[in-house]
Amino acid sequence: MFKYCPNCAAPASKFIDGKKFLCEECGFQIYHNTAAAVAVLLEWEDQYVLLKRGREPGRGMMDLPGGFVDPDESAEDACRREIREELGIEIKDLHYLASHHNTYPYKGITYKTCDLFFRAKCCTADFVRQESEIEEISLIDKGQLPVEDFAFESIKTLLKKIV
Ligand SMILES: [Zn+2]
Question: N or C terminus of the chain: which is more exposed, having fewer CB within 10 Å?
Fold first, then answer.
């Protein structure tokens, strides 16, 4: 995870069980814990809202609205915040569905996440796209989800159970 210890700058280090960095020189340790993330199967009438990713990882591939949970934030609040940011809308009838583990490579570091999936409804379909992160917003009929076009395994696993 680190080439050098962030505390004493010794080159020797261990990365244990995929989560714990330990410096054998000074004893410094830090946990690279699984991060919580949310994704929402978002409904508008008889359709689902899908996003085409505008950024790596998985640029150009399909995604559900969502993202990482911020410090001191609930998963439900993360769903509402992310959808406000990405789509510019409010949601209703938010319900938890299931969770699946995922791997998220970003700028040379591999993050392990626990993705929490929710279902919700749009209050409106007047979307305002977050241009920095999202290439395209589309509505697709239920039962027509392009499961293999999604960027992340956790979402594919969820959708295969649902469709
Ligand atoms: Zn050290």
Answer: C
Residue among 78, 54, 58, 73 at smallest CA distance from 155 = 58
* Cα(11) to centroid(ligand 1), Å: 8
Q: From the CA of 113, how far away is ligand 1's center (Å)? A: 27
pTM metric for this prediction: 0.91
Q: Phi, psi at residue 132, to the nearest 5°?
A: -70, -25
How many Å apart are CA 72 and CA 38, to the nearest integer? 15
Low-confidence ranges of the chain (pLDDT < 50): none
112 Cα–ligand 1 center, Å? 24
Which protein residues have their CB within 5 A of the ion that is ligand 1? 5, 7-8, 10, 23, 25-26, 28
Token digits for 133? 């992160």
**Separation of alpha carbons 66 and 133, rounded Å:** 11
Q: What is the DSSP string of 1-50?
A: --SS-TTT--S--EEETTTEEE-TTT--EEE-PPEEEEEEEEEETTEEEE
Which residue type sits at 134?
Answer: I
